[in-house]
């Protein structure tokens, strides 16, 4: 059985492309792990400021740097990369 890549409470980036139309893309929080549809794992996600939740397939989501579960510390190489990228070396 395939395991979900993301966990409840994790923030993910949603690309917003589904079928022939675009949905609102952005950062969303995983609210529920759903069973697969065929071979594709699915999630219930909710955006800040939205009254509703939506369903997204795993291929539509990407982990965000700030989307790590609470309590997960960044490894030193990620901290250094963030400093360089932001101009604070």
Characteristics:
two-stranded antiparallel sheet; 7 strands; mainly beta; disordered C terminus; 12% helix; 89 residues
Describe the structure.
By secondary structure, the protein is mainly β. Helices cover 12% and strands 39% of the residues. The chain has one helix spanning 76-86, and strands at 11-14, 17-18, 21-22, 26-37, 40-47, 54-57, 61-63. Strands 6-5-4-1-7 form a 5-stranded antiparallel beta sheet, with no helix packed on it. Strands 2-3 form a two-stranded antiparallel sheet. Mean pLDDT is 75; it is low at 67-74 and 79-89.
Low-confidence stretches are 67-74, 79-89
Major sheet: 5 strands, antiparallel
| Number of β-strand runs | 7
Structural class: mainly beta
Mean pLDDT: 75
Strand content: 35-45%
| C-alpha Rg (nearest Å) | 15 Å
Order of helices and strands: EEEEEEEH
Main sheet: strand order? 6-5-4-1-7
Number of distinct helices: 1
Give the proportion of residues in helices: 10-25%
Short description:
The protein is mainly beta and 89 residues long.
Topology of helices and strands:
Blueprint lengths: L10 E4 L2 E2 L2 E2 L3 E12 L2 E8 L6 E4 L3 E3 L12 H11 L3
